[in-house]
Amino acid sequence: MPTPARRPPHCAAGTGAAIPPSRNAAASDAPAPSPGKGSIAGLYLVAGLVMGGVWAWNHGSPLWEHAVKLLVLLFVAAPLLHLARSRRAARRPAHRLRLSFVRLATAKIALVVLALGASWLLEDSMPDPDLVVAAGLAAVITLLGPLLHRYLLVRSPAAVP
Description:
Layout: H1 25-29, H2 37-57, H3 63-88, E1 97-99, H4 101-122, H5 129-148, E2 153-155
Helix pairs in contact: 2-5, 3-4, 4-5
Region (Disordered): 1-33
Transmembrane segments: 40-57, 63-81, 101-122, 134-153
Keywords: Membrane, Transmembrane, Transmembrane helix
């Protein structure tokens, strides 16, 4: 049921003029949200679901196969997607920050080692440990990725200071 329309408040002088909301000090004190936060979180959600899905799809495989498939996904497919994205963005001016390959590679290797260790530890205690590890991978990447993203960035050499 729609709510009835309210008339704007009158000013103290009784002229009937409404006070514009832009003059409200409380509304103007709040900082504007940064434009890239939502898109970064969405990218980490997709990455977490893809890597968790690859791990779950290959459940029952030996651990070394999991490691090889996930490393191929992380070090071959991801850079190809990044290359395609950077070519598309070449028309825009240089950004001040960019992802560091060394930091990103270190984070990816640590993630694979963590997943392998969790799978190895859970191997004898449950029937399908790979499905639990896949859910854990998706959760860790989705939740911690946006929080740790700023530590993966370095100043671009092409950016003007």
